[in-house]
Amino acid sequence: MSVTLEQDLKEYLAEQFKQIELRFQHIDRRFEQIDQRFEQIEKRFEKIDQRFEKVEQKFEKIENRLEKIEANITDLKVGQARLEEKIDALDKRLEFQEFINRGILIGFLAAILAGLAKLFGVIPSS
Asked: Do the Cβ atoms of 116 and 110 come closer than 8 Å?
């Protein structure tokens, strides 16, 4: 009996080892599938990282352009302030010139009226 028991035990253990080996093979296949999925996920993350880098580069370009635009706007505001000062100065000069022209016109009209009055005898000649 001991030989058959030993034989049965060996067969049972061999069968159990085969089942364990099959389970390990199944687990190994599962790990390979998981590894493949992780590789796919890593590739996707790499693509996403590349896209984020492109987006960041575009944002940097946009920021540089905005800075240039802001600098140009500042220059335009300064130029506008200078032009407003010059326009105010020219406006004052024009007002003064109009005042002088009005005075000259009134003097000219007075001289013409005085000459006409003397011509027609309204003012006696001396």
From this structure: no
